[in-house]
Write a structure and sequence with these properties.
Blueprint (H helix, E strand, L loop, with lengths): L21 H7 L6 H27 L6 H20 L4 H15 L6 H14 L5 H9 L3 H20 L6 H12 L13 H9 L3 H22 L4 H14 L13 H7 L6 H16 L2 H14 L2 H24 L3
Helix pairs in contact: 2-4, 3-13, 4-5, 4-11, 5-6, 5-7, 6-10, 9-10, 10-11, 11-12, 11-15, 12-15, 13-15
Length: about 325
């Protein structure tokens, strides 16, 4: 970037820049630091975002993270996926925090559509699968579109400043070409644990159509939730953040942390014994199935058989059942 070379070059599928071009200017600042310092600073920022997000959700779900026992339990439950997040240098802590603030702003009265729209534009520029939340934002307040487009404009001016031209649209073409070419080759990689890979494993190329139909059904449920307008922000937020993960074409296994709001919300519900045992079992898998417990070959086989997706799917199905019951019970009449 500093030499003016192309940002988007086909690589070895790993360690390649795939974000919006405006972020290259921000990330390039880390290159002025020694490598270990840059990694430490970046990881520290992500840890802070994860802690802030955990505290917000804990307050919504009725868990007091000031109590050491809750801190220890949460750390144990999330350590496997969280250590992978940090080890791989992921930015999901920032995105999870942004999505959480999105729910806080739009589920409050009065809501804050412009702030939410700008934040969503920044999130989508990092990972396109958060575009699902644009539907949620539009359902809550159509004015979020204004904030979203303002965010897009701000990002473009950042690109213009870096490249010295307001019409450097070729860089966007290169970005999208890379995302739609190289990234698509990873959709069915064994680390992916979402609906797209699941349906592909069952139906081959037809799996894309099943995935698309399931995504439409998910969005229809989101519309129904908004029509009813009886669910509190923890239900709404858990629904949308779970879908953002499960319906992403690249649902990497360590992003199962996005399932934790729905998982812990279920533990607050009057579940049947077998449902509670299933949720406990899934939490056990999230916690204990690691490289250290299964070994390298074992964890590869587990991911290849989509073990994390199966557990996430079980939690999601139970969550949808209780979301429906809660909505119906709270609906007037």
């Amino acid at each position: 970037f500093l030499r003016g070379d192309s940002l988007y070059q086909v690589g070895d599928e790993w360690m390649i820049y795939k974000y919006h071009p405006a972020w290259a200017g921000f990330f390039s600042l880390f290159s002025f630091m020694p490598l270990r310092t840059a990694i430490l600073v970046f990881d520290a920022v992500q840890v802070i975002f994860w802690i802030l997000t955990a505290n917000i959700w804990a307050s919504w779900l009725g868990f007091d993270l000031r109590k050491p026992v809750y801190q220890v339990v949460l750390l144990l439950f999330s350590l496997s996926a969280f250590s992978a997040e940090i080890g791989y240098g992921q930015i999901n802590g920032t995105l999870f925090f942004g999505a959480t603030k999105l729910f806080a702003w739009l589920e409050s009265k009065p809501n804050r559509p412009y702030r939410a729209g700008i934040t969503l534009a920044l999130m989508c520029s990092l990972k396109l699968n958060f575009g699902i939340l644009l539907i949620y934002c539009m359902l809550k307040n159509i004015r979020t579109l204004s904030g979203f487009f303002l965010g897009v404009i701000v990002l473009h001016f950042g690109v213009a400043a870096f490249y010295g031209s307001l019409v450097s649209f070729h860089i966007y073409r290169d970005w999208l070409n890379l995302l739609l070419s190289q990234s698509s080759d990873q959709y069915y990689y064994f680390e992916a644990q979402g609906f797209l890979r699941f349906f592909h494993s069952l139906f081959g190329e037809l799996g894309k159509h099943f995935w698309f139909v399931s995504l439409i059904l998910f969005l229809c449920i989101g519309v129904w939730i908004e029509i009813k307008k009886v669910l509190s922000k923890e239900w709404v937020g858990a629904f949308w953040i779970s879908g953002t993960y499960l319906f992403s074409p690249l649902a990497w296994w360590y992003q199962l942390l996005f399932m934790y709001p729905a998982t812990f919300l279920l533990l607050r519900q009057p579940l049947k014994t077998f449902e509670r045992n299933l949720v406990y079992g899934c939490i056990g898998v999230f916690t204990l199935v690691t490289f250290n417990t299964l070994g390298r070959q074992g964890i590869i086989v587990f991911k290849d058989w989509q073990g994390f997706f199966i557990c996430s799917g079980i939690v999601f199905i139970i969550f949808l059942k209780h979301l429906y019951r809660t909505t119906v019970s709270r609906a007037p009449g």
